Amino acid sequence: MEKTFYIRHLDETNQFAFHIATHAFPGMVIGLHGDLGSGKTTFAQFLAAHLHVTGIVNSPTFTILKIYQGDFAFYHMDVYRLEDSGYDFELDDYIYGSGVSVIEWYPIISAYLPTSILEITITRVDDSTREVVIKGSGEYEIIVQTLDS
Ligand SMILES: Nc1ncnc2c1ncn2[C@@H]1O[C@H](COP(=O)(O)OP(=O)(O)OP(=O)(O)O)[C@@H](O)[C@H]1O
Ligand SMILES: [Mg+2]
Fold first, then answer.
1. Which of 47, 56, 125, 140 is most buried, judged by most C-beta within 10 A?
2. What pTM, to 2 d.p., does this model score?
């Protein structure tokens, strides 16, 4: 199932992240796609806060993976740099683990991801407006279904 909707303010990005957080489960994988500055890290930060992650969640671009602890283990990845170096199989321990994984630029490693993940594509419309396309099947379908758009 897929839905497209518009977010007009950071507050709505926060509400959207809250909806996802209420449906979080061990082993959840969320793929984020969208241009530089579209709001992938911003979404991840709001999600982390709703999952009671403590500490500052900042962009993992240079480290690829950052590990946090909240209601679940929280794995924040930015796989942009793997475009050149190829997949790092150590990431399997996390992606196929029992935490919540959030993967910025996930299409770069899509061949290595579980067949069912929650896919979120963000497109900048103007300074504060974003178009969001959310897609999920299997255990993720309910998340898309119950989203007000
Ligand atoms: N509705 C919105 N949702 C998300 N971000 C927004 C929104 N409105 C404005 N912004 C701003 O857009 C910027 C998004 O930057 P962010 O680092 O989250 O992008 P990114 O997609 O992670 O980029 P990168 O590809 O470089 O990692 C932030 O400065 C954020 O405050
Ligand atoms: Mg980012």
1. 47
2. 0.96
What pLDDT does 148 receive? 85
Best residue for ligand 1 mutational test, from 11, 15, 42, 126 (most atoms within 8 Å of Cβ): 42
Distance 38 CA to ligand 1 centre (A): 5
123 pairs with which residues across the strands? 131
Structural domains in the chain, sorted by start: 2-132+140-145 (3.40.50.300)
What is residue 59's predicted lDDT score, i.e. its pLDDT? 77
Task: Tell how far the Cα of 103 is from the centroid of ligand 1, in angstroms.
Answer: 15
Tokens of residue 72, six digits = 């679940």
* pLDDT value for 38: 97
